[in-house]
TrEMBL record:
Family (UniProt): Belongs to the glycosyltransferase 10 family.
Protein name: Fucosyltransferase
Location (main, coarse): Golgi
SUPFAM superfamilies given in the database record: UDP-Glycosyltransferase/glycogen phosphorylase (SSF53756)
GO cellular component: Golgi cisterna membrane
Length: 408
């Protein structure tokens, strides 16, 4: 009897080793719960599906995902994010909706006069009701704010000197370098370490657009890219990936669609107003929506510099392929983007993208955050955007006392 037990143990041990050898050699594959392709956020690898399904209908992909995975399972996978309301790292975003000590505010009303700007939209002008009963006037009109508490400059340098009774000087720079003017009282930029943070995730960055989005994705041309600022490093990166994937490039850089402004020729339904001359931005989201993927490459790799290039793609219903800030996951929903930095080569990334394009369930999971309401830090990213800047700036102005602040 002891000999028989020993033989049984030896056989079981040998079978166990055989299974391990098969698993690690690739002959035996264990598919993930939701799909044959795991998250690129967690791994740059994937398992090949036994039956590729080059789908076009996004609603059909959602239906398959709902039946095979569903929101309950997705929420369970990300339950820690739901519990905490954000990812483990929150240092990339200011706590803009945290507790505000109303006693810190020295003014009950603050006014901001915008003096020098390039892209700050006119429809940001408004009279806002903010926290602690603070009212905030944000305007580009000196008629409405003849005695402003602060002057906001974006493209021009604030006055070198400020005397007692003069408005506070606010300077904004959302470019990667975050260059201060050196004379401002309050500085606005995209980083959490700045006086007031303003991310690129706000809806006000893309007013006057055609938001008709296609539910049908192109199977023959997988990737959308558009860039007209042809930086050498970005061009090289884009070319190295796009040479491996079927794509359309609509901008000046690496254009392969026969010229500029060709999107409306391919997608006439994207015209915002058929009776007016089109502008490249008014049909941007609509054109993007026809593709499964949008390539988003930042001008530079800088901490927290996550720009509209990424957020436009998310808003269009495509899956962004992103190259940029290494802390990008502090700003976006879970499992919402393909992070190019997680792959060892462009070939590996391209192979992953092609496999994902042929797996409706895996592709649909990149949209689950939106459909299931699992936002993680993305909610805070939106709260710290241009959309909420007026009240947050007025709070900062009020803390200092506005034009009553002592000059130094």
């Amino acid at each position: 009897m002891p000999l028989k037990s020993l033989n049984s143990f030896a056989i079981a041990l040998m079978l166990g080793f055989a299974v391990l050898i098969l698993f690690f050699s690739g002959f035996l594959e264990f598919p993930s719960v939701s799909s044959s392709i795991p998250s690129a956020k967690d791994s740059g690898l994937y398992s090949k599906s036994s039956s590729p399904d080059p789908f076009r209908d996004l609603f059909g992909a959602f239906k398959k995902w709902d039946s095979q995975v569903g929101c309950s399972q997705f929420r369970e996978k990300h339950k820690q994010l739901l519990k905490n309301g954000s990812s483990s790292s929150s240092s990339s975003l200011q706590d803009v909706d945290g507790e505000l000590e109303c006693s810190e505010l020295k003014l009950s009303h603050a006014s901001v006069l915008v003096k020098g700007w390039t892209w700050i939209p006119d429809n940001l002008d408004n009279l806002y009701s903010c926290r602690c009963g603070l009212s905030c006037l944000w305007t580009k009109s000196s008629v409405l704010a003849d005695k402003p508490d602060a002057l906001l400059f974006e493209t021009t340098t604030p006055p070198l000197q400020r005397g007692n009774g003069d408005p506070l000087r606010v300077y904004m720079d959302l470019e990667a370098g975050r260059k201060r003017s050196g004379v401002e009282d309050i500085f606005i930029s995209y980083h959490a370490k700045d006086d007031v943070q303003s991310t690129y995730a706000g809806a006000l960055f893309h007013n006057n657009r055609n938001y008709l989005l296609s539910s049908y994705k192109d199977n023959d041309t997988l990737v959308y890219w558009s860039s007209s600022r042809c930086l050498p490093q970005r061009n090289r990166l884009a070319k190295s990936l796009l040479s491996l994937l079927p794509h359309h490039s609509f901008g000046k850089c690496l254009n392969n669609v026969g010229g500029l402004d060709m999107a409306l020729s391919l997608y006439p339904e994207c015209a915002k107003d058929p009776n007016s001359a089109p502008k490249w931005w008014d049909h941007l989201h609509c054109a993007m929506s026809h593709y499964k993927f949008v390539l988003a490459i930042e001008n530079t790799v800088t901490e927290s510099y996550v720009t509209e290039k990424l957020f436009y793609a998310l808003d269009s219903g495509a899956v962004p392929i992103y190259f940029g800030a290494l802390n990008v996951w502090d700003f976006v929903p879970p499992h919402s983007i393909i992070d190019g930095s997680k792959f060892s080569s462009m070939e590996e990334l391209a192979t992953y993208v092609k496999a994902l394009a042929n797996d409706p369930v895996a592709y649909a999971e990149y949209h689950a955050w939106r459909r299931c309401g699992v936002l993680s830090n993305y909610g805070k990213t939106r709260l710290a955007s241009l959309d909420t800047l007026p009240c947050r700036l007025c709070e900062a102005v009020s803390r200092k006392g506005g034009r009553n602040a002592r000059a130094f």
